[in-house]
């Protein structure tokens, strides 16, 4: 029964108006979209993800299931619940560990609609909660604030940008504040397929607080119907503080 419902969701809604009111997601890139869901709409964005890093002759791998739930509650507002899901970390010189990632509660507020060269703009307010398990449980509440912008460009291109500030705790359990920034260019290949290229500073902090986390990424998003998207992305770390390679395959459904 579940497979039947999923099949209907993926393929039953495709048609001539596919490009009209199509699903807008916050994945697979790091840069968030400023678009919000219509009131009463619910969206699931889930995936499988992996990371690999070599350092000092040792290799560490991390697998996770990042998931974002979004609920439209007004013309310009949505509620959000996000988690890294189930995680498993393995290493050549350390025991494997498994657990559940922390949950993050948030809201997105679109305060300006784009047009005539103006970007669409939205604030995102989130707080990470110490709700995970094992080695993946964080310490205390960690709030963050981001601003997302998107410009519509000629030839169907769009440019997204994001900046923000986050708080976290370092290895000594001391609270610190860091910045983040990113830019992503979306390039349509046809009516249902697009690619993107992105540069991101996922964290800008001092070395004692994890340092700079810098990435370059690309990927594809395939619009299966007005309410369904399949995507894939690959990210390369640009410095020693960042995993060498990261990848993700995701599915997004709007109800």
Write the layout of secondary structure elements.
Blueprint: H1 2-11, E1 42-55, E2 58-64, E3 67-72, E4 77-83, E5 86-91, E6 94-100, E7 103-112, E8 120-128, E9 142-152, E10 158-169, E11 175-188, E12 193-204, E13 213-225, E14 228-237, E15 245-254
Antiparallel strand pairs: 1-2, 1-3, 1-15, 2-5, 3-4, 4-7, 5-6, 7-8, 8-9, 9-10, 10-11, 11-12, 12-13, 13-14, 14-15
Overall mean confidence score, pLDDT:
92
Count every beta strand, where a strand is a DSSP E run of 2 or more residues: 15
CATH level 1 name: Mainly Beta
| Rounded radius of gyration (Å) | 18 Å
Shape: globular
Class of secondary structure makeup: mainly beta
Features:
255 residues; mainly beta; Porin; twelve-stranded antiparallel barrel; 4% helix; disordered N terminus
């Amino acid at each position: 029964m579940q497979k039947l419902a999923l099949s209907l969701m993926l393929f039953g809604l495709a048609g001539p108006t596919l490009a009209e009111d199509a699903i807008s997601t916050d994945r697979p890139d790091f840069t968030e979209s400023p678009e919000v869901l219509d009131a009463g709409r619910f969206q699931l964005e889930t995936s499988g993800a992996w990371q690999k890093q070599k350092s000092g002759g040792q290799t560490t791998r991390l697998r996770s299931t990042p998931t974002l739930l979004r609920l439209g509650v007004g013309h310009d507002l949505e509620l959000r619940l996000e988690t890294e899901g189930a995680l498993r970390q393995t290493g050549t010189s350390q025991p494997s560990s498994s657990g559940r990632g922390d949950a993050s509660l948030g809201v997105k507020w679109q305060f300006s609609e784009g047009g005539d060269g103006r970007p669409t703009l939205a604030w995102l307010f989130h707080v990470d909660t110490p709700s995970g398990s094992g080695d993946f449980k964080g310490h205390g509440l960690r709030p963050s604030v981001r601003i997302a912008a998107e410009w519509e460009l000629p030839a169907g291109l769009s440019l997204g940008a994001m900046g923000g500030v986050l708080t976290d705790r370092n290895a000594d359990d001391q609270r610190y504040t860091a910045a983040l920034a990113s830019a992503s260019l979306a390039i349509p290949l046809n009516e249902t397929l697009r690619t993107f290229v992105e540069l991101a500073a996922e964290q800008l902090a001092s070395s004692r607080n994890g340092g700079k986390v810098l990435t370059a990424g690309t990927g594809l998003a395939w619009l299966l119907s007005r309410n369904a998207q399949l995507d894939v992305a690959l990210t390369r770390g640009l410095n020693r503080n960042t995993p060498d390679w990261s990848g993700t395959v995701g599915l997004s459904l709007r109800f």
